[in-house]
Structures are given as structure tokens and as C-alpha cells.
Amino acid sequence: MLASLIKTCKLYGIDPQGYITDVITRIVQGHPNSWLDQLLPRAYVAPIRAVA
Fold it and tell me: If you compute the radius of gyration of the chain from its CA atoms, what whole number of angstroms results?
């Protein structure tokens, strides 16, 4: 299952490690269960990180 998730991330041009880290962080911080479909690779929008 994890290999499939990583492959899907790559197909969408998403860094798998960053994606998994961000999604787990969002879930732990209380991302609403009704909005979990927003965290799927096809709908995922990575957070914009400030560049110093």
C-alpha cells in the first residue's frame, strides 16, 4: 500500500516524503475527517513555504 502511495505521488509530481510528513501532521493537528479527500495525492496542495 505504501509503495502504491509513493508511486501515485510521483505520478502527480509530489515529493512522497514531504507529502506523507505533511498529511500526517495535518491529521494530528485536527484536519476534519469530512475533508480527508483533500489530502489524497490527486487533490493535494502542498503548503507554501517561506524562503528566507
Answer: 11
